[in-house]
Amino acid sequence: MNKAITRIIFISFLALFSCQSKPTAPPTPPAPVNLQTVSKKTVLYYDQYPSTTQPLSQVNLFPEVQGYITAILAKDGAHVKKGQVLYEIDKRLFQANYDQASANLKVAQGNTKQAQQDADRYEYLNSQNAVAKQLYDHAVIALQNAKNAEKAAEEAVKTARTNLAYSVITAPFDGTIGFSQVRLGNMVSVGQTILNTISTDDPMAVDFLVNEKQLPFFESLEKGNAETNDSLFTLLMPDNSLYPFTGKISVIDRAVNSQTGTIRVRLVFPNTGYILRAGMSCIVRVHNQESSPQMLIPSKAIVEQMGEYFVFIAKDTVLPKKDSTKTEKETDTVKGPKLVALQRKVQTGQTIGPNVIIKSGINPGDKVVVDGVQLLHDGSRINPGKKPATDSTAKGQQDGNNNGKKD
Q: Which of 31-35, 260-264, 331-335 has the lowest mean pLDDT?
């Protein structure tokens, strides 16, 4: 009985202490941030597209006759001219065949001449009824056979001449050859052995893909309906340097890829210094011709969440009345306007250096948090001007003053 009473008393004490009010947690101090007022300004920027350089013409060199390589007359990677001799295949057999065909042609020509004389003689005798009709007919047939034999000999000469010419491989056009796939003494087979690859190098094509929604814009550029701009198409090299020449649209592909919704566009760039090589990965920059002012803010002010983009803007807020029993120091350490950070979803545009264009979601005049966003959530109290600006913020502000110009 005593144990039961003791247990009841113990539980009563626990309930009594649990019902007592907990001490109020001290208020969270405002987060120190830096703000930047949103404004519109004219900016120069480029739409960028991954691209690949392509030769306008490229062929593999195959032998047309079988034989051994007896000469390689162009260095690997050399620039060659149309008709320049690149390889020679052992031509002795082809030269002998040509000489034999030429001799056979002369024999056939002699037989034709003899048959012609016989036919002419029998024709005269036949007109005088001085020879049998059968002999005359045989003479005419012999002449026709001799002419046919001569024609066959002529075709044999052409074939032998062609094979002899095929023993010398020449460049089909001006361009650059690659590494030779054969060496001296190698046996090559017709249509099977690749000797080398040659491609044009000036001008050079650059291919890139654009979304089908952009097709009307590029079609207008192809037709020359857009405003002329010397720097409309520029090229960033793999080392991020700017190619010294500008390009122009050569052709737009015939169809849109139904799986990706993209279409290929080909530009052509002059390549007098042979800086561009086939297969290079570059970046095509298309000068954006949008002349209206744009909203530009630092990229670090943007927060990404689940594929969507947000910024924090500073807004005045109405705070509860101060407790008259507490001093100002006890209630709030912030003097001046009381601000909170409100989260706003934005639509981003082109990135320009450390800044990014904002298409919608905020308005000119809004004050955007550019430093300290990692400490904020929607409705956080903020203390502007208390966080030192980083180097990137200073750079972003300087770029904004330069109208967002990017080299």
A: 331-335
